[in-house]
């Protein structure tokens, strides 16, 4: 998205929440950190004379998306979400769907100890402290000095990953259960394909509900939306 906007010579700022230590090089100016809720974002939009917001946050970053909806409504700023289509189960998948990360932790709490690949990122690991009996495999972007789980192995790497590599990873660690957010897209789908291939059950966490808004699924469609709403 940043590449297309830069190539179109549209003045823009790429905003990061600041959740990871290292961000990739980008062709646009960066802003890192929160705004102070919807009101803070509204003030920023007015101060910077922003006319369009593309919400390309993670599907589970629901508070930021709600803040963007409210701030854009208050300031009359055009808003569109660039979203990844959610994953759907296919033949061979063994999904147990849960509505929240907390519900996934409760599900594991009631299980006998096993080897779990916990593919939910760093922010919500502490919620699984209620199920300390499991041996967890974590894949994180940034290194963490301490982990809230007593039996955990952490790998530090940034995707995308290949299905073949994830099959090998799950075999090496003897994974018996995968816990995943329904992030959608192709970047992290390899773990879902690997679980299907190895017949490993998946605890799939549904996306949080977001109020209705304009949505597109490709960067090109987002750029077309900017052009269309700039001239209409």
Task: Give a concise summary.
By secondary structure, this protein is an alpha/beta fold. The chain has helices at 2-7, 37-47, 62-75, 101-109, 163-172, 190-198, 219-231, and strands at 14-16, 30-32, 52-55, 78-82, 95-98, 115-119, 135-140, 152-156, 177-181, 202-205, 215-216. It is elongated, with a radius of gyration of 19 Å.
Characterization of the model:
The chain is 31% helix and 20% strand. With 232 residues, the protein is α/β, with parallel strands linked by helices. The chain folds into 2 domains: 106 residues, no CATH class; 111 residues, Vaccinia Virus protein VP39 (Rossmann fold, 3-Layer(aba) Sandwich). It has a 6-stranded parallel sheet with strand order 5-10-9-6-7-8. Strands 3-4-11 form a 3-stranded parallel sheet, sandwiched between helices. Helix 6 links the parallel strand 9 and strand 10. The longest helix has 14 residues. The model has no long low-confidence stretch (mean pLDDT 93).
């Amino acid at each position: 998205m940043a590449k297309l906007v830069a190539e179109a010579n549209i003045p823009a700022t790429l905003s990061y929440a600041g959740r990871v230590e290292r961000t990739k090089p980008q062709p646009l100016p960066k802003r890192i950190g929160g705004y102070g809720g919807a009101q803070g974002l509204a003030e920023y939009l007015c101060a910077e004379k922003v006319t369009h917001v593309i919400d390309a946050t993670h599907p589970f970053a629901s508070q930021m998306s709600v803040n963007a909806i409210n701030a854009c409504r208050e300031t009359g700023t055009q808003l569109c979400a660039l979203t990844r289509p959610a994953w759907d189960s296919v033949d061979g998948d063994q999904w147990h769907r849960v509505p929240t990360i907390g519900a996934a932790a409760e599900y594991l709490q009631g299980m006998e100890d096993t080897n779990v690949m916990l593919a939910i990122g760093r922010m919500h690991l502490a919620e699984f402290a209620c199920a300390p009996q499991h041996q967890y495999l974590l894949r994180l972007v940034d290194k963490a000095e301490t982990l809230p789980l007593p039996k955990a192995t952490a790998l530090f790497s940034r995707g995308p990953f290949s299905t073949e590599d994830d099959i090998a990873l799950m075999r090496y660690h003897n994974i018996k259960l995968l816990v995943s957010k329904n992030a959608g897209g192709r970047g992290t789908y390899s773990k879902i394909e690997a679980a299907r291939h190895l017949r490993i059950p998946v605890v799939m966490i549904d996306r949080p509900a977001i109020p209705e808004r304009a949505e597109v699924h490709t960067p090109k469609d987002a750029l077309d939306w900017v052009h269309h709403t700039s001239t209409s």
